[in-house]
Amino acid sequence: MRSKGSLICLRLLCAAAAIYLATALVGVSAHANPFPKGNAAAGKTLHDKGCVTCHNSMFPDKDGRQLYSDLFRKADSVAKLRGMIEFCNNRTKSGWFEEEIQHVGRYLNDTYYQFK
Ligand code: HEC
């Protein structure tokens, strides 16, 4: 009898652990950000400095923000957004590191793309 009792205890413990884990995971994903280490304000500064002029020149009304609008954007995933940031950054030869990419990614995602 004793062994059966402890088995039930173990099952309860497992169930409790599973529920705990599930809520913990939901909690994490609800707060997850594709650019967790990025600082949007720092990203805006970098973006204003190195990226805006060229994007602006692409539009007749000189408003490059349209590039990120639903109408013009091609990036439809975090990976593609990241890829374009890296691609464009390489062309500017600013030599950004992961840190800067996170900042600009955070800024663009928070402001325009809003990928989860
Ligand atoms: C020399 C001009 C130029 C500069 C400088 C430039 N870009 Fe771009 N960028 C482009 C062009 C052209 C496209 C569109 C490419 C396409 O649609 O295939 C683009 C597209 C993008 C996109 C994708 C938009 C979308 O969803 O379709 C992102 C993101 C982006 N640029 C980020 C940056 C960042 C960040 C910088 C600064 C490091 C930067 N760009 C600097 C020319 C430039």
Question: What's the short story on this structure?
Answer:
This protein has 116 residues and is mostly helical. It contains 5 helices and no strands.
Describe this structure in words.
It is a single chain. This protein has helices spanning 2-31, 40-50, 52-57, 78-92, 98-113. The chain is built from five helices and no strands. It has 116 residues and is mainly α. The chain is elongated, with a radius of gyration of 22 Å. The protein starts with a helix and ends with a helix. It has two domains: 1-32; 40-113, no CATH class. Helix 2 (40-50) packs across helix 5 (98-113) and helix 4 crosses helix 5 (98-113). The mean pLDDT is 85. The longest helix is centred in the N-terminal third of the chain and has 30 residues, at 2-31. Bound molecules: heme C (HEC).
What is the averaged pLDDT score?
Answer: 85
> Which residues form runs of ≥5 with pLDDT under 50?
none
Q: What portion of residues is helical?
A: 55-70%
What is the count of β-strands? 0
* Total count of helical runs of at least 4 residues: 5
Number of domains: 2
Distance between the termini: 50 Å
| Shape, principal axes of CA atoms | elongated
Along the chain, the helix and strand elements come as: HHHHH
Work out the strand percent.
under 5%
For the CA atoms, what is the radius of gyration? 22 Å
The helix-and-strand class reads mainly alpha
Give every kind of bound small molecule, once each: heme C
- Main beta-sheet strand count, sense and barrel state: none
Characteristics:
116 residues; mainly alpha; 2 domains; 5 helices; elongated; binds heme C
